[in-house]
Amino acid sequence: MVYENPDGIRIGLEIHVQLNKLKTKMFCGCSSDYHNAAPNTHTCPICLGLPGSLPVLNKKTVEAAIKVGLALEGEIAEETQFHRKNYFYPDLPKGFQVTQYDFPIVSKGKVVIEGEDGEHTVGITRAHMEEDPGKLVHIGSIEKSKGVLIDYNRSGMPLIETVTEPDMRSPKEARRFLDKFRNILEYLDVFDGNLEGAMRVDANVSVHWGTRVEIKNISSHKGVERALLYEIMRQKNVIRRGGKITLETRHFDEGRGVTISMRTKEEAEDYRYFREPDLMPMRVTDWIPAIRETLPELPDAKRARFMEQYGITDMHAKSLTSKIMLADFYEGVCAEGVDPKIAATWTADVFLGELNYRDLAISSYDGKKIGFIHTKDPEIENSFKVSDMIELVNLFAEGKVSDRAAVEVIRTILDGKEEKAPSRIIEEKGLFKAEDDLVTKAVAETIAENEAAVKDYLGGAEKSLNFLVGQVMKKTKGTADAKTARELIVKELM
Ligand SMILES: Nc1ncnc2c1ncn2[C@@H]1O[C@H](COP(=O)(O)OP(=O)(O)OP(=O)(O)O)[C@@H](O)[C@H]1O
Ligand SMILES: [Mg+2]
Ligand SMILES: [Mg+2]
């Protein structure tokens, strides 16, 4: 299958990622652990940009950038340096942002995603380091706001900006790219995507192979997908009415789901880039071998190994490796000699499905349990123990609990406040699988009591069989295995 891209869509992303796993900021010793702190409490003359303060580069920023570059299979510049991007705006009182201009540390990388027509490669144009400015908090909506508050806790946080080639051909591909990119960064342990403001995306998009429009500063992957869907529709409509698309910057209004023009590129500023005189150029070639040593097994490699080592399907391997903490949890479960295929089903399909359904995001794994938080309210948190999954998988493998009962156990643990082992939950809820003769008895009774349904089934109405199975489940209070019940009924009526 070859994807034709009938609307000539091209999407290129600029992704700002905070290296929020580093202990301190980029040019000063202020702690980067500010997310729960009061505004402007994690600041000093350097990150406030006060006159006379001098930056001291946090070497870990450069190391992390090189690590990212290697993971993206990019080229690392032999010599790299910083520039000043001059602009006047209250998010950076010193009047310029320290960034990299024509010497980005990383260039020419790639990321392989699941595209519209199978594997699809997205080129990485460049990735560079820069400092995060302070955060402006608009009171009310950005267009109507009467006032602005500024929090400089974020100011001076190390960022990596990654620019892709316009290689994505649909909003879905853009979202898949972002999911994959985030996953890689989390594997590298340089980034925690659950923290507020950790990843901000500018999405560039054009239709009919035309001029691009840039949508600035979108904070979620889903937001990027929605903004692009809207923007593509808007551009197509403009062209259909005989209009022209011009290079402009737009803002995505998450609430209304629309993009709004902010400025045209003619109004774009001239940033008067020049070399940052307070920071020396760096030669980093010698650092590369040691950093390469620290590269972990990356998602694609892990996925291939999982299929090979555990004999699981590609779908399961993909889902289990979509988060490093989930992959580690799964391996923790398998380490105890449980059936890896059953463990994959219960972890990837049921457990992960139930988490998504509840808007819970995986946030930690400590070797014993996997933790998760609510995506809208991080105060809501819970965890699931490796030992509980092992017990459940074994009970299921031994035929002691049915599908339905195992799902019920997982739900009970996710929703419960007190800790309980699966076997206790099963006992308390009476979920142990019914003995075979109990099921046989229920089948016989069901057939005797439901003459009409039996007749319909024998007359070819498959639906009636479902009804009969339902009756058996009811009689056994859901403890029968639905598949067994079905087989028994069919056999009886043959
Ligand atoms: N025709 C196009 N359609 C869609 N995207 C495009 C097109 N041409 C370029 N792009 C994308 O636009 C982005 C350009 O980003 P880049 O940072 O190089 O420049 P910029 O947006 O002008 O600068 P700034 O950093 O100030 O936003 C890249 O992601 C690129 O892939
Ligand atoms: Mg741009
Ligand atoms: Mg850019």
TrEMBL record:
User: What residues does the Asn/Gln amidotransferase domain cover?
Assistant: 328-493
Family annotation (SUPFAM superfamilies): GatB/YqeY motif, Glutamine synthetase/guanido kinase
**A family per Pfam:** GatB_Yqey
EC number assigned by the record: 6.3.5.-
What keywords tag this UniProt record? ATP-binding, Ligase, Nucleotide-binding, Protein biosynthesis
| Alphabetical list of InterPro entries matching this protein | Asn/Gln-tRNA_amidoTrfase_suB/E, Asn/Gln-tRNA_Trfase_suB/E_cat, Asn/Gln_amidotransferase, Asn/Gln_tRNA_amidoTrase-B-like, GatB, GatB_C_1, GatB_Yqey_C_2, Gln-tRNA_amidoTrfase_suB_CS
Q: Which reaction does it catalyse?
A: L-aspartyl-tRNA(Asn) + L-glutamine + ATP + H2O = L-asparaginyl-tRNA(Asn) + L-glutamate + ADP + phosphate + 2 H(+); L-glutamyl-tRNA(Gln) + L-glutamine + ATP + H2O = L-glutaminyl-tRNA(Gln) + L-glutamate + ADP + phosphate + H(+)
Name the family the entry cites.
Belongs to the GatB/GatE family. GatB subfamily.
Q: How does it assemble?
A: Heterotrimer of A, B and C subunits.
Known function:
Allows the formation of correctly charged Asn-tRNA(Asn) or Gln-tRNA(Gln) through the transamidation of misacylated Asp-tRNA(Asn) or Glu-tRNA(Gln) in organisms which lack either or both of asparaginyl-tRNA or glutaminyl-tRNA synthetases. The reaction takes place in the presence of glutamine and ATP through an activated phospho-Asp-tRNA(Asn) or phospho-Glu-tRNA(Gln).
Q: What is this protein called?
A: Aspartyl/glutamyl-tRNA(Asn/Gln) amidotransferase subunit B
Q: Which organism is it from?
A: Methanosarcina baikalica
The organism's lineage? Answer: Archaea, Methanobacteriati, Methanobacteriota, Stenosarchaea group, Methanomicrobia
